[in-house]
């Protein structure tokens, strides 16, 4: 019996050693993103705004950042005086001050969380795209001022700057909620700021065929964006990208055969009619055409499944190669996606 135990122990030691060697090999082959040099330049204009106690101080603040103020509040330089008169009562309002103080708590935007998450994301992007130049980041907090006049007051991303309205990313725990639909609140939590930013940054690399107007092309374009964002932030939950609840993600995966059957039976993949495509691509609380519990933007989710399968099954395929691929049909065919779960 002792001899038998020794053999079992010896076998287990060999097994553990082999596993450790495999893990060491995998870990050693992973890119060292921490050594990628990036500059994180965050201008906390929210702090400067709430430090203003008079109209003159507001005007001095506006004139310090004229481009940002003009772009974010959609006003010209000659209207700065009028804007100051409108904003002064807001920053002096006790309710808004309390709301802003909440945003500075560690659970929201206090500390270095935002800076650290941007650093991690930018390091990943720069590793794959060495010519990537980190945009300057501006944060503001205006109590939803101007909502309705601005197209994207919560988040604006360009090659050189990123504007973030922190008040729009306080989530359900915020003292006040932005004027959005309930299902859209899932993407308004603090943890969603950087994932949503990277999704928008992916657009500069996401090449497409402008002549292809099919729903499949739209699905694949979104799928490439999600795969890009997941590559740059592999530890972030999928829900922070697509805005589904965990239950919706699980159920979409479980019932994807039925979802896929709807697309095939209704010949949707090659449909080019915008009213039809919008039902599956645009944001909606649900996709009732498939079922009352089917979440909106299900076409984007399916595109993610298709592109993800295509990307995962090509080990030598780089993210740069994926983003350059403009042939949606080729991606679809090579993915061999049939509406089935991944093989274990």
Task: Please state the structural category.
Answer: mainly alpha
Cα Rg: 24 Å
For the biggest sheet, the summary is: 4 strands, mixed
Strand order of the largest sheet: 1-2-4-3
* DSSP helix fraction: 40-55%
How many structurally independent domains? 2
What can you see in these coordinates?
- The longest helix has 28 residues, at about 1-30.
- It contains 16 helices and 4 strands.
- Helix 8 (about 195-200) packs across helix 9, helix 9 (about 215-230) crosses helix 16 (about 330-335) and helix 14 (about 300-310) packs across helix 16.
- It folds into 2 domains: about 40-180, no CATH class; about 205-335, no CATH class.
- The radius of gyration is 24 Å and the shape is globular.
- With about 350 residues, it is mainly alpha-helical.
Summarize this, please?
With 344 residues, this protein is mainly alpha-helical. It is built from 16 helices and four strands.
Which terms would index this structure?
344 residues, mainly alpha, 2 domains, four-stranded mixed beta sheet, 52% helix, globular, disordered N terminus
Task: Break the fold down into its secondary structure elements and pairings.
Layout: H1 2-29, E1 42-44, H2 45-51, H3 55-64, H4 66-73, H5 80-91, H6 94-103, H7 113-128, E2 136-140, E3 155-157, E4 161-165, H8 193-201, H9 215-232, H10 239-242, H11 246-254, H12 256-265, H13 274-281, H14 298-312, H15 319-324, H16 328-335
Parallel strand pairs: 1-2, 2-4
Antiparallel strand pairs: 3-4
Helix pairs in contact: 3-5, 8-9, 9-14, 9-16, 14-16
């Amino acid at each position: 019996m002792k001899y038998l135990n020794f053999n079992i122990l010896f076998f287990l030691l060999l097994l553990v050693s082999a596993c450790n060697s495999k893990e060491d090999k995998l870990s050693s082959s992973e890119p060292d993103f921490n050594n990628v040099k990036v500059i994180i330049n965050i201008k906390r204009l929210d702090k400067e705004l709430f430090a203003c106690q008079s109209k003159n101080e507001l005007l001095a603040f506006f004139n310090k950042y004229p481009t940002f103020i003009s772009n974010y509040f959609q006003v010209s330089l000659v209207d700065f005086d009028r804007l100051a008169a409108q904003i002064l009562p807001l920053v002096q309002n006790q309710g808004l001050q309390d709301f802003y103080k909440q945003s500075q708590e560690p659970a929201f935007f206090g500390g270095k969380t935002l800076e650290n998450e941007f650093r991690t994301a930018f390091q990943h992007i720069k590793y794959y795209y060495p010519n990537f130049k980190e945009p300057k980041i501006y944060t503001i907090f205006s109590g939803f001022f101007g909502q309705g006049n601005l197209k994207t007051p919560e988040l604006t991303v360009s090659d050189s700057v990123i504007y973030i309205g922190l008040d729009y990313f306080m989530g359900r725990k915020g003292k006040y909620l932005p004027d959005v639909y309930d299902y859209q609140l899932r993407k308004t939590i603090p943890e969603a700021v950087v994932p949503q930013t990277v999704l928008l940054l992916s657009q500069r690399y996401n090449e497409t065929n402008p002549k292809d107007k099919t729903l499949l092309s739209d699905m694949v374009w979104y799928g490439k964006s999600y795969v890009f964002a997941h590559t740059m932030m592999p530890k972030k939950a999928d829900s922070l990208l697509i805005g589904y609840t965990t239950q919706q993600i699980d159920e979409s995966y479980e019932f994807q055969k039925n979802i896929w059957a709807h697309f095939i039976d209704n010949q949707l993949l090659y449909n080019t009619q915008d009213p039809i495509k919008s039902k599956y691509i645009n944001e909606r609380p649900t996709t009732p055409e498939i079922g009352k519990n089917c979440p909106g933007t299900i076409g984007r989710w399916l595109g993610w499944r298709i592109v993800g399968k295509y990307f995962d099954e090509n080990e030598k395929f780089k993210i740069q190669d994926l983003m350059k691929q403009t042939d949606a049909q080729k991606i679809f065919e090579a993915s061999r996606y049939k509406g089935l779960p991944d093989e274990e």
